[in-house]
Amino acid sequence: MNTPGFSFRITARRARARAGVLATPHGDILTPAFMPVGTQGTVKAMTTGELEAPPLDARIILGNTYHLYLRPGLEVIAAHGGLHRFAGWSRAILTDSGGYQVFSLATLNKIDRDGVTFRSHIDGSEHRLTPERSMEIQGVLGSDIAMAFDQCPPGECGPGDHEEAMERTTRWAERCLAARRPAGQALFGIVQGGPDAARRRAHMAEIVGLGDFDGYALGGFSVGEPLTVMYELLDEIASELPEERPRYLMGVGTPADLIHAARAGIDLFDCVMPTRHARNGQLFTSQGTVVISHARHRSDTSPLDPECPCETCRTVSRAYLRHLFTAREILYSRLATLHNLTFYARTMAGLRAELNGIEARP
Ligand SMILES: [Zn+2]
């Protein structure tokens, strides 16, 4: 990788899949890795201590530029010297560029060659993001890995919209590379192109052709396309991303999706699914998804997942979790989130162990 303080070493390969170590100024990340999403500078319901403690052992979390820029605002985070100290998190952070939320959450006023003018979803105030401004904000946040400002078009859009978004994303990626970054901040480029393999390849060639990114991400997946389309496309193109750089699949998905994508050659993942599903009562277990509100769990004294070593599964029953969920107790969200994130972490640890050819530990 180009940026000082970073390196990516592949430790094992099996077919298109690989295991590796991504070294950052805030510690090593064993890949394939899942990054819990900390939208507002917090992985909802979790303390940093809980995120760091094994078996969850999160090495990197994600922060959302759009949300943190609007609230609490940059001056508050700058006063702390960046997001690490503001959130009390000493391990690695990746920030997105703000682009995805601008296009999905905010009221768009104008998208032009130069950037996007939008209204905040919180108070309607007007703001503008450009590639340079996104890099400047991510610089203040002080993330270890910044993402290039891109346009992720909606899933249902046509070929013309995809091509326009690709062209714009390339132009913006070039400007992000040219923008000033703080020392010790890596920058990843984003490949768009929608569900068509030829268009994906064309955009990959453009982004990789810009030359200087520390890693590469695939954006615009899991935006409503059928699962088979996503899987086939990943099988075709993921392994064509530069071999020696980390590959990141943005915003995907279920544990099965992650396993499929890792086998196709992806190293990094993020998704709100484990945390959001936890709060909504959907829990991932080694026996499949559990809907905790279901009456069958009413007096079930067994643990949520007998194979899971997390504190939730070691200490309380399904009946207790169902009771907390039904009574809308705050503790429910904490216990459920800890479990779902641990399930994702163990899924990744299992993949790494399999790839590295060692016995998986709980
Ligand atoms: Zn558990």
Task: Walk me through this protein's architecture.
With 362 residues, the protein is α/β, with parallel strands linked by helices. It is built from 14 helices and 17 strands. It has helices at residues 48-52, 65-70, 74-79, 83-87, 99-104, 131-141, 159-178, 197-209, 227-237, 255-263, 273-280, 311-315, 318-326, 330-356; strands at residues 7-14, 17-24, 27-31, 33-35, 37-38, 60-63, 92-95, 107-111, 116-119, 126-129, 145-147, 186-191, 215-218, 247-249, 268-270, 282-285, 288-291. The protein has a 9-stranded parallel sheet. Strands 1-2-3 form a 3-stranded antiparallel sheet. Strand 13, helix 9 (227-237) and strand 14 form a beta-alpha-beta unit. Helix 6 packs across helix 7 and helix 11 (273-280) runs antiparallel to helix 14. The two termini are 32 Å apart. Bound molecules: zinc ion. Zinc ion binds at residues 304-305, 308, 310, 312-313, 339, 342.
Task: Explain the layout of strands and helices.
Elements: E1 7-14, E2 17-24, E3 27-31, E4 33-35, E5 37-38, H1 48-52, E6 60-63, H2 65-70, H3 74-79, H4 83-87, E7 92-95, H5 99-104, E8 107-111, E9 116-119, E10 126-129, H6 131-141, E11 145-147, H7 159-178, E12 186-191, H8 197-209, E13 215-218, H9 227-237, E14 247-249, H10 255-263, E15 268-270, H11 273-280, E16 282-285, E17 288-291, H12 311-315, H13 318-326, H14 330-356
Parallel strand pairs: 4-15, 5-6, 6-7, 7-11, 11-12, 12-13, 13-14, 14-15
Antiparallel strand pairs: 1-2, 2-3, 8-9, 9-10, 16-17
Helix pairs in contact: 6-7, 7-8, 10-14, 11-14, 13-14
The chain binds zinc ion (ZN).
